[in-house]
Automatic annotation (TrEMBL):
Belongs to the glutaredoxin family. CC-type subfamily. It holds the Pfam family Glutaredoxin. InterPro entries: GlrX-like_pln_2, Glutaredoxin, Glutaredoxin_subgr, Thioredoxin-like_sf. Its main location: cytoplasm. Keywords: Cytoplasm, Redox-active center. It comes from the Eukaryota. Gene3D superfamilies: Glutaredoxin (3.40.30.10). Transmembrane segments: none annotated. This is Monothiol glutaredoxin-S6. PANTHER family: GLUTAREDOXIN (PTHR10168). The keyword Cytoplasm applies. The keyword Translocase does not apply. Residues 13-75 form the Glutaredoxin domain.
Amino acid sequence: MDVVASMVADRPVVIFSRSTCCMSHTIKTLIRGFGTNPTVYELDEIPNGQQVEKALQQMGCKPSVPAVFIGQQLIGGANQVMSLQLRNQLAPLLKGAGAIWI
């Protein structure tokens, strides 16, 4: 879990993804649509991807991708992010983390 903590430190929005995952693509598109520039880690393209994926699963991410952190806090996967969007709570989280300025 320390590896994940170091990867999300000092970044307003971090998305752990797989380059072939359609839900990951959807969440990245949604979050970028707010004008954010998230840090994206494609677990199938980074050297320690399997280690990071195991750590995400230990943190409760099932499935492990997409996993979204806003303001260094684990928000969850696609279902949690979409639920926040439907309740109009995603934009305020992004603003509070300094990812958007509207």
